[in-house]
Amino acid sequence: MRRSATQRQPDRNGRLRIIGRMSSATPAARSLVIRLADPTQDAEAVAAIYAPAVADSVASFETVAPDADEMAARMRRILTWTPWLVAEASEGEAVGYAYASRHVERAGYRWAVNLSVYVAPARQGQGVGRRLYDTLLPILRAQGLLHAYAGITPPNPGSIALHEAIGMRRFATYAQVGHKLGSWWDVAWFHLQLVDRLPDPPPEPVALPALLADPEACARIPALRVPPRGS
Ligand SMILES: CC(C)(COP(=O)(O)OP(=O)(O)OC[C@H]1O[C@@H](n2cnc3c(N)ncnc32)[C@H](O)[C@@H]1OP(=O)(O)O)[C@@H](O)C(=O)NCCC(=O)NCCS
User: Fold this and answer.
1) Dist. CA 139 → ligand 1 center (Å)
2) How many CA atoms lie within 13 A of 203 on its CB side?
3) Cβ contact 60:44 at 8 Å
4) Higher confidence at residue 84 or residue 227?
5) Ligand 1 centroid vs 203 CA: distance in angstroms?
6) pLDDT tens digits, residue range 98-151?
7) Measured in Å, how far apart are the chain's first and last C-alpha atoms?
8) What is the pTM of this model?
9) Which residues are within 8 A (CB) of 60 and not within 5 positions of it... i.e. 6 or more apart?
10) CB 135 near ligand 1, within 6 Å
11) How far apart, in whole angstroms, are the C-alpha atoms of residue 135 and residue 85?
């Protein structure tokens, strides 16, 4: 059973007490290092984190899990424009990842991204997803990106809770749009405007590699200060 933000359990005297928030406040989540992915080093672990979502769930509508080579290629492609982050536990193991990708390829959509996030099953509900997004969103804002979207296949209470926790709101449903595991599934779309007011005209967004070349921007965002392993 998945956990909510807090749990109530009887103590030794039968009184109810609140036990630790199963959220970004957990010590396990606080000790994570959130850093940019290194396709050479991380592809295998990231592919392993993603595989169960492909095999056993409708969190992803892919039906064949990508191998490490394919995952490395995806990471390289994403990193030419937007961040791909990895959450690394204290023992150095990758336990989750999140990235932003272009919402739609057409030029007029270049201020809009889709968010994706996957956490290893054993680490879900411990604040990993929240830590990843809390790092990802400031980078997107620093790039001058203005809209974030996420498509979620209900019911996925963990994903809906995470996306609502970062301020996203459901605005549309694609009814019965995907077929997997023998059924048709809706996709609920969530949105977050990344700035209070949309600038008009909007400044050009900055591609991630250009942001990384700006020492002041990197100094402001801890995840960008941590060099990827193997570099
Ligand atoms: C969805 C997923 C990424 C969430 O990441 P996570 O690390 O488990 O989530 P967190 O522990 O950071 O929780 C984030 C918030 O959601 C809440 N939450 C998490 N799981 C929940 C659940 N099952 N029910 C209700 N709330 C939940 C937390 O309390 C927390 O809220 P808070 O920050 O206000 O305290 C993760 O569960 C996962 O990888 N699931 C399988 C793949 C998937 O569905 N990916 C998303 C595709 S759209």
Assistant:
1) 21
2) 10
3) no
4) 84
5) 33
6) 999 999 999 999 999 999 999 999 999 999 999 999 999 999 999 999 999 999
7) 40
8) 0.89
9) 50, 53, 54
10) no
11) 8
Choose the residue to mutate in 119, 132, 177 for probing ligand 1, maximizing ligand atoms within 8 Å of C-beta: 119
Spatial contact of 207 and 143, defined as CB atoms under 8 Å apart: yes
Q: Which fold has domain 7-224?
A: Aminopeptidase (3.40.630)
33 vs 6, residue with greater confidence: 33
The 10s digit of each residue's pLDDT in 61-111 is: 999 999 999 999 999 999 999 999 999 998 899 999 999 999 999 999 999
32 lines ligand 1 (CB under 6 A): no
Domain ranges of the chain: 7-224
Q: Which residues pair with 174 in a beta bridge?
A: 187
Cβ pair 162, 2 in contact under 8 A:
no
What are the tokens at 162? 């995470």
Alpha-carbon distance 19 to 3, whole Å?
11
The CB of 221 under 6 Å from ligand 1? The reply is: no
